[in-house]
Amino acid sequence: MPDYYPVYLNLAGKRCVIVGGGTIAQGKIGGLLQAGCHITVISPDATPGIRQAAQRGDIVWLQRNYEPGDLEGAFIGVAATNVWHVNREIYEEAEGLGVLLNVVDDPDLCSFIAPSVVKREPVTMAISTGGASPALARKLRETLANAEALEWADLADVLAQARRIIKEKRTVIDPERWQCCITRELLNMVQEGRSEEALEVLLSQLQDSGTPEMCGDLAHCQPRTCQVRQAARDSSARHREAVR
Ligand SMILES: C[C@@]1(CC(=O)O)C2=NC(=C\c3[nH]c(c(CCC(=O)O)c3CC(=O)O)Cc3[nH]c(c(CC(=O)O)c3CCC(=O)O)/C=C3\N/C(=C\2)[C@@H](CCC(=O)O)[C@]3(C)CC(=O)O)/[C@H]1CCC(=O)O
Ligand SMILES: NC(=O)c1ccc[n+]([C@@H]2O[C@H](COP(=O)([O-])OP(=O)(O)OC[C@H]3O[C@@H](n4cnc5c(N)ncnc54)[C@H](O)[C@@H]3O)[C@@H](O)[C@H]2O)c1
């Protein structure tokens, strides 16, 4: 199995060709549309879902068999026919044109494979077993979707605001300091709707090396012996105990 390199692709405005109009093709459309692709489906028949998407104008459906040249101008493609030699032809065209291609039935012919995705806006977690077991990827997705750790995603907006403000000031914050400041208390504030207060607390803790409960010497922050981190760990443990 190849050693896949995980990436997040910006597909906004890019052309995507999906060959085949079955349930597997339909399953690929949602995520690609959400990413802003211009999708053309090429297939002599199509599921009701694909037909409806075409009627709404979300995608273009060309009701015919695949022909060489169909990938021309595409950035990304999916070969989702149930005919091996057709998927193989599409693969050869994609290789020649340098188009990224997912062949749903054949990992060896894929230049990319699709992960299982867990979302808690604006955070997404992509899970892959490298093709070993898609069923396991789904199991992990379903487990992680209910995992407490995913709640940290709720801090993303406040952290993004703090980051912007700090960038504007052209200040550099030690990466360890960021970790110290991402605490359960901060998360509680945000989840209780006190985001403005959370931003204030965060900015002061990030920037004020004199804050008594924070490490004084940023340059020598020791993650393993850090009291602030230990306090955050204790607080998380207490929280877990409380919700049990
Ligand atoms: C993540 C997900 C996204 C998506 O499909 O977009 C996805 N498969 C999903 C589900 C799923 N697919 C299959 C089952 C039945 C159980 C099982 O086989 O385990 C289930 C489980 C279910 O449906 O519950 C059958 C299957 N899949 C592949 C083959 C061919 C082969 O392995 O040779 C066969 C046999 C076909 C046959 O027998 O005819 C191949 C691939 N499937 C991948 C992705 C890529 C590797 C992902 C990775 O593990 O890293 C890869 C390599 C290429 C690709 O398609 O991108 C989606 C998760 C949905 C979710 O999160 O709920
Ligand atoms: N990757 C996965 O997760 C996964 C899971 C299950 C199945 N599969 C495989 O994916 C393939 C597709 O599955 P499905 O359930 O969507 O199959 P399906 O039979 O419902 O659909 C196949 C589609 O391909 C079209 N097609 C056939 N020949 C074509 C051609 N020459 N040009 C254009 N379109 C053509 C058919 O008209 C049909 O719309 C199957 O081979 C299946 O074994 C993959």
From TrEMBL:
Picking any one GO biological process from the record gives:
siroheme biosynthetic process
What GO molecular functions are on record for this protein?
Answer: ferrochelatase activity; precorrin-2 dehydrogenase activity
Where the record annotates domain Siroheme synthase central, the positions are 120-146
| Highest taxon above the source species | Eukaryota
Pathway assigned to this chain's UniProt record: Porphyrin-containing compound metabolism; siroheme biosynthesis; sirohydrochlorin from precorrin-2: step 1/1
Q: What is its EC number?
A: 1.3.1.76
Q: Which reaction does it catalyse?
A: precorrin-2 + NAD(+) = sirohydrochlorin + NADH + 2 H(+)
What is the recorded name of this protein? Answer: precorrin-2 dehydrogenase
Lineage here is: Eukaryota, Metazoa, Porifera, Demospongiae, Heteroscleromorpha
